[in-house]
């Protein structure tokens, strides 16, 4: 089969399905994307130049649509060039978030388009208004609602939708949900797995040595920012570090902003360090930035307690990977996390805003060996039942077969 994938940052959410298809060595895979250095053998990347953003005179409510229209046009021109060269895909798979798929039905009429539906924006039931520390003025609500324009255009264009969790599906209006197929994303259980040997070895993370006797608390986010509870974790650190002298904390993530707004100046890490000052012993806390994947997995295998916090928003891959690795996870008691963690069974849930309670739950996992063993074992069992990469890819294959009439 001929597959056309589209995502502005290759390979995006399609890493595993692309690897799966290339391993079969019988498909033609083309991927339209902005230029980047990522490579997968067997995939032909076709780059398009990132278009300019919305014009300054565009009304703020319409700026996302303006940017999406420019991006859709750029991808459409690239696709037309492919068609002129004789390329006609059997299916188009991409992400609807940036508008890249909007014009492809005009280039290849009748070719099924399967679009990743990540989130339907709301002003009262998800991330907006969740954290009173960072309120959004009501004057911004029209802009939030307008972010769904691409979602709605995608629906109006026909095609098909795909989403990875029940909660993400629930954010969409009821009349859209039958159009969206739930395919739960999997984890490579052969890579993300417990390794008792790692727990008995010393390791170094970002220049900080973790002795076998140390208690390692881990936290991971693409970027260190409030949407992922970074400010909550930081405010929990003084209680956590006072509780035990052998606790070491690794806070993994970049200094940018993936979701929400930036701080008044600098990074959120700078902001929180300035707020907390001497309350945190920085000899026992390390910020290594982003880690090589093998180092990241080894850190999860060594973790004594893993903290995962998020607003009511899209759950991170790191939560799935932590569960598969058998981490004792302390997660925020928010809807996206409750889909993965049952309190006191395969993890603990903590009130997102209760910093003292979060620190106490982390310490309870560290000091109660029986609890920690139980949570680790159940986390892995949960991953084996619900996060199997094999099952994920089989469901993806079946969806492709249903849409194209051809076996993937």
Brief overview, please?
By secondary structure, the chain is α/β, with parallel strands linked by helices. It is 38% helix and 17% strand.
- Please tally the β strands and state the result: 15
Assembly classification? single chain
Shape: globular
Query: Number of helical segments?
Result: 16
Average predicted confidence as pLDDT: 96
What is the distance, rounded to the nearest whole angstrom, between the alpha carbons of the first and last residues?
7 Å
Descriptive notes:
The protein has 408 residues and is an alpha/beta fold. The protein has 2 domains: 2-186 and 389-404, 3-Layer(aba) Sandwich (Rossmann fold); 196-386, Rossmann fold (3-Layer(aba) Sandwich), CATH 3.40.50.2000. 38% of the residues lie in helices and 17% in strands. It contains 16 helices and 15 strands. Strands 3-2-1-4-5-6-7 form a 7-stranded parallel beta sheet, sandwiched between helices. Helix 9 (230-243) packs parallel to helix 10. The mean pLDDT is 96.
Descriptive terms for the model:
single chain, 408 residues, alpha/beta, Rossmann fold, 2 domains, seven-stranded parallel sheet, six-stranded parallel sheet, 16 helices, 15 strands, 38% helix, 17% strand
Layout of strands and helices, then pairs:
Blueprint: E1 2-6, H1 15-24, E2 28-33, E3 43-47, H2 63-84, E4 91-95, H3 104-107, E5 113-116, H4 141-146, H5 149-156, E6 160-163, H6 166-170, H7 174-177, E7 180-182, H8 196-199, E8 203-205, E9 208-210, E10 215-223, H9 230-243, E11 247-254, H10 268-276, E12 285-289, H11 293-302, E13 305-308, H12 317-324, E14 329-332, H13 335-338, E15 348-350, H14 355-367, H15 369-386, H16 389-404
Parallel strand pairs: 1-2, 1-4, 2-3, 4-5, 5-6, 6-7, 10-11, 10-13, 11-12, 13-14, 14-15
Antiparallel strand pairs: 8-9
